Amino acid sequence: MDRERIAREVRRRQAEETLEFEREHEQTLQEQVELVIADAEGPKLDAAVFERMSPEDAEIVRADFAPPSVHDDSPGIGYLERDDVIFFDDEVDQHDEELARLNQELDECRRRQRAFQAYLDALGG
Fold it and tell me: How confident is the model at residue 93 (pLDDT cuts 50, 70, 90)?
């Protein structure tokens, strides 16, 4: 039994799995950054685009992009089961804070990826 070979294979597998996880995590964080930006900039964009649409079509899109508040007690409207909607009380500051947090997490995620890639490179064949 070649113990070093077994240890090397297990460590390689562990490092590759962690690296793959970090890559997926980075993609998720990037998507969250995009959603926060869309939430911050979307209303200005929507206003301009809605001007070029029929009122009926604009209302359909507006209803989907501007869901009711989580505090809306209208019949048939409860908390939306969407994971792409973020509710902020103080829009600008919250967006900036969330973007800063997500960007810091992205930096940490990318740093972990570099470290695990360096480990795999150093581990060799």
Answer: confident
